[in-house]
Amino acid sequence: MRKRKPSFFNEKTLLNRLLKNYALILVSLILVGMFSIGMNTYWQSMGRGKVTAQEAVDTISRSINDKNLQGKTMLNELKENQEKINSLNRYMDTPISDYLTYSYDQQLETGNYLFLPGQVKNFYTMYDNIESIIIVLNNYNDYYLSTAQDKSGKKINGTPRLNNKFYLAYPITNPVTLEVLGSFYVEFSQKDILDSLTHLTTFDGLSAYVFSSTGNPLLTYTEKNNTLDQQLIQQKMKETSVLPLQKLMENNILEHIQTASEFEILVTISKEKILTHVLFELRILMLGGLVLILILLYLLYRTFTKYSQQVDIIMGAMALVSEGDLNTRINEQETQFELKELSKGINTMLDNIEQYISDIYKLEIKQQDAHMRALQSQISPHFLYNTLEYIRMYALSEGSEELADVVYAFSTLLRNNTDQAKTTTLEKELSFCEKYVYLYQMRYPDRIAYHFEIDEALKDLVLPKFSVQPLIENYFVHGIDFSRNDNAISVKARLVDGQVKVLIRDNGKGISLQKLALIKSKLKSEQIELHDSIGLQNVNERLRAYFGPSFLMTITPNETKGIAIMLSFNDPLS
After folding, report:
1. Reduced to 3 states, what is the DSSP secondary structure of residue 262?
2. Domains along the sequence of the chain with CATH
3. Which of 124, 283, 319, 557 has its CA 20 to 30 Å from the CA of residue 224?
4. Does the structure show a pLDDT above 90 at 241?
5. In whole angstroms, what is the distance from residue 493 CA to residue 471 CA?
6. pTM above 0.85, yes or no
7. Is residue 508 a contact partner of residue 484, using CB atoms and an 8 Å limit?
């Protein structure tokens, strides 16, 4: 037999066009994938930056709160009673030798040894993050300074310099008169905060600033040389004591809080650094994507060449079969992968047709048997009614009237659901709805209240069955909040000027204005397509078909919570 030219080399063959289309699709998918991965990487990086900024704020806030608590504890140790206040004044007022004599005399007199340098020195033992302590009393020109190098401290004339240090300040008040006597300053080490911030991010663009309630900078940390932001912050704080948050948000991810102690914490992460980080990753991605495209195009060419040769073998065999040579078989050794499976399938297809028909017939018989068994296993509704009535009577005999009422309500609902009647009276419809709500009330005691009213003239009004119940069911499915104990729904049916008005109101979750506007526009249409409001659609269509053009359904939000649904139509009895 003459050897054919592989179909791959025929420009008009479907296989050649498929190869081109497939290559185009693959290249497009790779490019789209690269773009998607790049965008996803960017947004993930921005999200990580937001989380990192929040973690940095939380870290600083927790550290400041801890230090603030330590400072208050130390201050309380120094001023908790009048004796300690007197000791502070005596230290500032007398030479150290006279003060030492005073401390010994007080110890002999009261049993308490109050020596300010000793107390302060103990603070360094209690807390290892203290750099210095300053005590300033209003009535003295000197102030007390203690440092980590000189823990006992000394009096220094003049005003303390607190610039560019992490000082927390506290007023010294007399515990008896509440008079402000001076100020207590504690300089804490910044090392724990700086160490925590160093390990938070990989973007190399995090900056943190802490300001006191008076606008003094307590902490400045930056991982980048961002002098413009620092200068802007320093200038605005100096001029207005207000951080330029809007300006900073243009180029940074920003987190800002003001603590309960009136410290302002600002953390920024440069968007430029994040973008640089993402672009670096994208460069690697683009290079890898280009290499992948070239490899795929080469493999497609090689694969489709072999594929087309195997397709020609199969097509030649199928041509012989179509000419009537049913004994022809494909040489499975010359095909691979799915074409080999296809060859096997073609070779065995004729032999297996009868077996397939037999299997399908047996399957249908089994399905019919299963359906018949399902029909045979159904329980007669009357058996259910009789069983429920027996349970109700037994509950009554045992004195469980509440359980009997629940069984009776459920039995009534079941009987109403299985009844094939197309219509009912308004009184029966509302009675059915009331039992429906009652069962919910039993399930969630003390959480649901309901109220039903109907005019005497409307009790015998005939309307389609299940006209009101879907509206009430909507409330329990979408509107009720079972975590509350003040859920309420009411139904009032009244005859006003020859029109029947049925009002269903609830105090549930309500409905958004956008969705409410969509529902109203659809209710006015002759062809309603409320995909998300099946109950409303069903009731509106059935009642409009039954009562004619006079029927109108309106939905409005209540003044407080929930919605109100009004069904109005002409009284057919008038």
Report:
1. coil
2. 12-80+115-325 (no CATH), 425-570 (3.30.565.10)
3. 283
4. no
5. 14
6. no
7. no
